Amino acid sequence: MDRYQLSERDICTKFITPAIQAAGWGLECFREEVKLTAGRVVVRGKLAARVTNPEAQGGPKRADYVLFAKGDIPIAVVEAKQARFSVGQGMQQALAYAEMLDAPFAISSNGIAFLFHDRTGSTQPAERELALIDFPTPEQLWTIYQRWKGISELETGVLKQPMYSDGTGKEPRYYQRVAINRAIEAIVQGQKRALLVMATGTGKTYTAFQIIWRLWKAKAKKRILFLADRNILVDQTMQQDFAPFGEMMHRITNREVKKNYEVYLALYQAVTGVEEWKQIYRQFPRDFFDLIVVDECHRGSAADDSAWREVLEYFSSATHFGLTATPKETKDISNITYFGDPVYTYSLKQGIEDGFLAPYKVIRIATDVDALGYVPEKGWSVESLKLRARCGCKPKT
Q: Per-residue pLDDT for 309 more than 90?
C-alpha cells in the first residue's frame, strides 16, 4: 500500500482510527467529522445565502475527530491530513477547534505520526511528535485535565452524568456544550454564584435545562427554582425545554405554596410583593432550594433593592445562577458585582460569524412627530375623533 496516494479519509480509516482505538478509546469515546458551525449567512440586498464551502471564509467548520472524556467533556481534537503533508500540517486547525470546544489537547496527524500539543502547559515540551503506537490513553489525558481544571475524583461523578437526550439525535451546539460544562464545573467546585452570558437566540434556556438536568440527575442539586419576569418565558420553558422534568416540575401560581416538587418555576411577581402576605417565598424554609436560576437577570436581580434580590438573599444557602444576553453594568446596577465574571460568554458577533444567527441591518429613522405634535385634519374635532376611535369608525372629512 502506498499511503502517499491515499485520500485524507483513507488515512483516517486505515491509520488514525486504529491508532486511537488501540490506545483504549472505545467507539463511545470519540466521534468523526464533527460539525461545529453551520457556515455564515451572507446578505446581499434582499437575497440571503449560507456559505457552504468549508474552504471559503465564513464556511462551516468541521473537526475530523473529537475525543470525549467521562461522557460529554471534549478533551482532544485530532485533525487529519494526507501523508504527502507534514505531520503538523493540521495543527493550526486543531488548535482553533480545541479552543472553540474548550478542549485542552490538539493533535495533528498525516497517518505516519502524531503531533501532540498540550494547551494546559502541564507537560514539557508542550508540543511533541508521537509514533502511531504512542497515542495517549484516556487515563493519561484525563489525569492532566483534572489537574488543569482542579477537579477531584469526588466531583467527577457529576461531570460523568450524561446530557438529556430525547432520542432524536439532537445535541447541544459546541458553544452550548462549553457553557454547560463550565457552569457545572464551577458549581460542583463550590462556586455559590455564577453568570452565563449568551446572545439572544442562541439557546440560553436549553443550555440552562441541560445544566439543571445533569445536576439534578446526579443528585448534586435536589430542589431547583427557576425565576423569570414574564409569563411567556415561564410557559415556553415548561412546555418546551423543561418538559422532560414532567411531574417533578411545578409552577408557583395563585400565591399557593406546595412543597412536594423538585423543580419549581415562577414569576418573581408571583412570589414577592410589598405586603408581607404576598411574599410567599418566605413560606419555604431558607434551605429548601439548592439552586436558583434567574432568567434575564439583567432586568431585576442586578439592583440591590430589587424584588428578585430579596428572594436570592432569603435563599442565601443556594447556588445562584444568572442568565442574560446583555449584562447590565451601571453606577447603581451590576450583574457582575453580584454573580461574578461570566463562566462563559457567547456574543452576538460570534453567533453571526458561526452562522447560528443571521446578520442584521441597522435602519435609522428620524421623525418630527414629537417636535410638531399632532394636529387633526380639517373637519376633525378632537372629541369626535376620540368617539369614533372607540367605535371603530373612520372620522368624517
A: no
**Strand order through the sheet with 291-294:** 249-251, 263-267, 224-228, 291-294, 319-324, 193-198, 344-346
Distance separating alpha carbons of residues 119 and 104, to the nearest angstrom: 5
In this structure, the dihedral spanned by the alpha carbons of residues 155, 158, 159 and 161, taken in order and rounded to 10 degrees, is: 160
- Per-residue pLDDT band for 209 (boundaries 50, 70, 90) equals very high
Q: What is the pLDDT of residue 397?
A: 46
Q: Which of 155, 143, 232 is nearest to 189 (CA)?
A: 155
Which grid cell is 69? 472524556
How high is the mean pLDDT of the chain? 88
- 83 neighbors 7 (Cβ within 8 angstroms): no
Residue 333 DSSP one-character state: B
Give pLDDT tens digits for 139-197. 999 999 999 988 887 677 888 899 999 888 889 999 999 999 999 999 999 999 999 99
pLDDT score at 238: 94
Q: How far apart are CA 42 and CA 55, in angstroms?
A: 16
Q: Which CATH number fits domain 153-354: 3.40.50.300, 3.30.70.3090, 3.30.420.270, 3.90.1150.10?
A: 3.40.50.300
Closest CA to 56 of 355, 350, 346: 355
Domain limits, the chain: 3-149, 153-354, 366-397
The whole-model pTM stands at 0.86
Cell triple for 397: 372629512
* Protein fold of 3-149: tt1808, chain A (3.90.1570)
Instruction: Pinpoint the alpha helices (H) of the chain.
Output: 8-11, 17-22, 91-101, 138-149, 153-160, 174-188, 204-217, 231-239, 268-271, 307-314, 335-339, 348-354, 369-372, 382-391
Strands 193-198, 127-131: parallel, antiparallel or unpaired by DSSP?
A: unpaired
Q: Number of helices (H) and strands (E), helices first, in the chain? A: 14, 15
Tell me the per-residue pLDDT of 190-205, one tens digit each, with 9 for 90 and over.
Answer: 999 999 999 999 999 9
